[in-house]
What does this fold into?
Amino acid sequence: MAKFEDVWALSLGVIAVASKALRRKPRIPPAGPLDDGISVVIPSRQGRHLLEHMLPGVEADLAPGEIIVVDNGSSDGTAEFLRCAHPRVRCDPHPEPLSFARAANRGAALARCRRVCLLNNDMEVSPGFFLALEEAFQEDPSLFSASAQIFFPDGVRREETGKTAMRRPEQLTPDDYPVFCDLPLDGENFSPVLYGSGGCSLYDLAKFRELGGFDEFYEPAYVEDLDLGYRAWLRGWPSVYVSGARVLHRHRATSSRFYTPEQLSRLLERNHVRFLLRAIQSPEIFSRYYRHALARLRRVAPEQLSWVSSARKVFDAAARARQGGHLSEQEILDLTSGAVRVFSGHAPLGGVHLAYARPRSLPDEALLQRHRTVILVDSTAGEGPYRAALKEIERRYPEKS
It folds into this structure.
């Protein structure tokens, strides 16, 4: 006999799917025709000292484009500093602190370029950052986002890499947080990722607005970028990892001044459960992830369980895009599980080579010489990631299928 929690989780998933199908989609109001170039949006709270470090590199690397700082609740003279030291920067001041999602959406509503790059104020870009991200869109115009490669200061553990993935339910142990950053291999580029990090990714602004931007339900921060990227995949709009776009992340230089590590951990767990409730479309997939997430929430943040009993209100609170892409929801999760790695070959007119390989193995140089792209799939991951990668190849290169 099925356990009560299993039946309840599956039933909750069915309710979620039914309620999502009835919602209207919120939109960020369009700002008229979009210009070529990149609009850089930087949410900042009490971050003048961080902006002093990061803005010179952004201004030197950006052309053409614009920079918008959404200054929310600062009392450190950020607005005056920007007027005097960086007159090119547009400052959008708000007297009260905004969540990350609200601040980012405000900036995206003001953006005037075809691409919008969201940068945390504790990110420092390397030369060629914007060009590398833009090249990903030239390679695949259907992209939703391109995620930069993230590094940390010397001596600090590399908690993020930019290559985001989510473990499949059968891979999870009780201690696993499902979403993780895979460690990229040398030469890996344009590998599919589950979402672009909200702190250092380039987005197609028209698609961003079509999805309504970040869901502002994820207060005050965390998981809103996962939610957005997942909704884009459901539409058939991929995200990829870009190795040549490099940033140095002074991790949580803002959030750690306003929240303790324990509070940040609880926010992450709570918002992940909210993501499952609001974004997952399949009742079967939902139930498998939800059982695991609920167990983690009981252990890590039991005080957050009170709102779960009123989950129907959560469903009705926001709109979600219905699935219409070329990949099923299971195929999206297979493709972005970290089992699929893409490498740029040396033959621009060559084909695409797809093959199984040992975990974390590099392609032979002979393969790279003969092909434009080499895609390796972890041989221990089963058939799902390989089949999903094959469908993605057929979409991107129909003439070679």
